[in-house]
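Customer escalation, tier 2.

The customer says the design service returned an amino acid string that "doesn't look like it belongs to this structure." They asked us to rerun it and document both sides in this ticket. The original structure tokens are below, unchanged.
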């Protein structure tokens, strides 16, 4: 009886179980069904992943471009900040009038001052600046591109108009440089404009090479050891500052070109009525010749020399006396 019960139970389980072929079909069909069901979702996920990946690439490209621009401007900003620190060119509460001629130097100065403030690279924020452009009534002069660029950068702009061109061309003797008279006339007009704008400082775009060329000009043509200071007090009581003093002309030219600053031509600078190079242009050639000597650091070393003067090794007796030295021997007269 027990054996019969076991046989019946075994037959019943066999009868209830699916045949082997059915199991095979189910086994083969289920993965295909699952894959077909999940495939649209997979496609959607893959599409989203591609979009996210592309957006990330775009974002990284934008960041790289921004970093490249920041890296491009940082060496110049660092030198401007160093000059500001060394000579207290900018102080809290200052209102600065920036003279912009439309050349590469003054345009770079205006842009760097803007970035100096935007990036908060000074230990104080309560200072401001505005730009001033003098139209000297040169033939064909048009300042519209400069004005549009400055306004596009969010920089305040003021336009002045004074006919100094005809005065310079009339008063300059044959063979002499236009630069001296032109700069004096222009400087006086800018002093007046700065006072009217309630500015206590006037910023000029002179750089390292300008200072060295002026040094050579004064030595060769005036018999004076005199260059361009980073800061001085003008007779009218306004402080004149030169924030680009530590930057070379080549750096500025490359930066202005890479940023596409608008450049206004000047018909006076660097030329004479007969078309020959002016005295300043001759000093540029002399500096280029000096660059070819030694280790090629002539300009950097000359700028360093302007900040490392030894009165005992010069012939200026008044300077010796002002420094507490004996006029004749250079010996120290008073112990500190």
């Amino acid at each position: 009886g027990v054996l019969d019960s076991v046989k019946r139970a075994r037959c019943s389980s066999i009868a209830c179980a699916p045949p082997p072929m059915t199991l095979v079909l189910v086994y083969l069909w289920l993965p295909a069904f699952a894959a077909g069901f999940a495939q649209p979702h997979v496609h959607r996920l893959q599409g989203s992943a591609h979009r996210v990946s592309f957006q990330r690439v775009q974002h990284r490209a934008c960041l790289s471009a921004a970093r490249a621009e920041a890296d491009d401007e940082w060496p110049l900003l660092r030198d401007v900040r160093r000059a500001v620190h060394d000579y207290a060119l900018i102080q809290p509460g200052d209102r600065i009038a920036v003279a912009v001629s439309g050349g590469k130097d003054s345009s770079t100065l205006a842009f760097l001052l803007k970035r100096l403030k935007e990036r908060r690279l000074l230990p104080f924020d309560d200072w401001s600046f505005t730009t001033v452009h003098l139209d000297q009534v040169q033939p064909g002069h048009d300042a519209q591109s400069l004005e549009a660029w400055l306004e596009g950068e969010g920089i305040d702009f003021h336009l002045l108009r004074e006919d100094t061109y005809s005065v310079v061309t009339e008063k300059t003797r044959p063979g002499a440089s236009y630069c001296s008279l032109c700069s004096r006339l222009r400087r006086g007009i800018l002093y007046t404009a700065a006072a009217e704008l309630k500015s206590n400082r006037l910023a000029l775009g002179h750089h390292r090479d300008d200072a060295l060329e002026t040094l050579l000009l004064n030595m060769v043509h005036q018999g004076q050891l005199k260059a361009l200071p980073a800061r001085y007090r003008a007779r009218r009581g306004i402080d004149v500052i030169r924030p680009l003093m530590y930057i070379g002309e080549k750096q500025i030219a490359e930066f202005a070109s890479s940023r596409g600053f608008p450049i206004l031509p000047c018909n006076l600078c660097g030329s004479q009525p007969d078309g020959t190079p002016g005295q300043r242009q001759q000093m540029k050639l002399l500096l280029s010749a000096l660059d070819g000597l030694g280790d090629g650091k002539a300009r950097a070393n000359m700028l360093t020399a302007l900040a490392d003067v030894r009165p005992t090794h010069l012939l200026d007796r008044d300077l010796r006396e002002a420094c507490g030295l004996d006029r004749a021997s250079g010996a120290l007269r008073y112990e500190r």
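Tier 2 assessment: The sequence is consistent with the input. The radius of gyration is 37 Å. The CA atoms of residues 31 and 37 lie 10 Å apart. Sent an explanation to the customer and offered a walkthrough call.
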